[in-house]
Every structure is written in structure tokens, then in C-alpha cells.
Amino acid sequence: MRIKGLSLLLYLCGTTLFHQLTRLVLLEISSFRTGAFTGVCTAQHVPSYKKNIDKFKAKGVDSVICVSVNDPYTMNGWAEKLEAKDAIEFYGDFDGKFHKSLDLELDLSSALLGHRSTRWSAFVEDGKVKVLNVENVPSEFKVSGGELINDLLLSS
């Protein structure tokens, strides 16, 4: 599976050009609430990647990138609150098009939250998705954590 839209997202966000990133970890932060600043995302998901950042770098991971259906100002404020800006790149998918292009969109309109994304993580190498972990329930944190990706990198 190839990630459609990632190179455009990275270009628009002004980060390293996609062809220069050979190994990266992507994670999406979303939950039954708004994603950024929510319980599971703030207490578990992002910290699991921040805690493992040195292990990822030692295994040749170029970047750990967090993309959420939020505006860039919210993402920046959240990254500052988590003290994770030095470890993880945070980007807002303000209109959800990136997640929709990956078929990871989640409609939470019935909970008054609009279109969001499922909680997921991926390991991407040379532009190809090697591992994609998608949570089945928005409030769960079972398969998308940093420890799991780290363990998978050990076996590769």
C-alpha cells in the first residue's frame, strides 16, 4: 500500500521533502473527543512515542510524525504542552482530506464532533507502508502505541 497525499502534506507543512525520508513512523491522534488534549491521546498515545524516540532513531527512523484532524495552532499548542516538539513533528489535517485519502476517516457527527480520523499508527519505509495498525474502537489504545511499533522494528 502506498500513502497517497503524504508527500503533499509534508510539502505543505514545510518539512523535509518526502523522498529524503526513508524511514518514518506516523501516528494519528483521535478519540471520541477532539484528539488533541484528550485523555488517551495526551496520557498514552503521544507519550508512548516520545518515550521511545531514542530507540526509533537508533533503528534509523528519520521522523516520528503526528497528524490529527485539527488546525495547526491547536497542534502546536498541544505539542508544547506535551513538551514533545523536539521529538515528534505535529501537523494538523485541518479539513480531514489527508485521512480521507487514506480511508481512515471517521464520522463522529452523531457525537457532535464531525469528521475525524480513527486512531492509527504506521511504519513507512521508502514511501511504502510496512506496518499499519488501526484501532477498532475510537476510545481504545491497544494496537497503535509506540511500544508495538518499536517491537516490530526489532524484528525487521
UniProtKB/TrEMBL annotation:
The first-level EC class reads oxidoreductase
Q: Where is the active site?
A: 41
* Enzyme Commission designation: 1.11.1.25
Q: Please list which residues make up the signal peptide.
A: 1-18
Q: Which GO terms describe its cellular component?
A: mitochondrion
Catalytic activity, per the record?
[glutaredoxin]-dithiol + a hydroperoxide = [glutaredoxin]-disulfide + an alcohol + H2O
| Name of the protein in its database record | Glutaredoxin-dependent peroxiredoxin
Keyword annotations: Antioxidant, Oxidoreductase, Peroxidase, Redox-active center, Signal
Q: What's any GO biological process attached to this entry?
A: cellular response to oxidative stress
The keyword Signal belongs to this UniProt entry's keyword annotation:
yes
* SUPFAM superfamilies listed in its UniProt record: Thioredoxin-like
A Pfam match: Redoxin
The Swiss-Prot or TrEMBL record describes its family as follows: Belongs to the peroxiredoxin family. Prx5 subfamily.
Q: Where does the record place the Thioredoxin domain?
A: 1-156
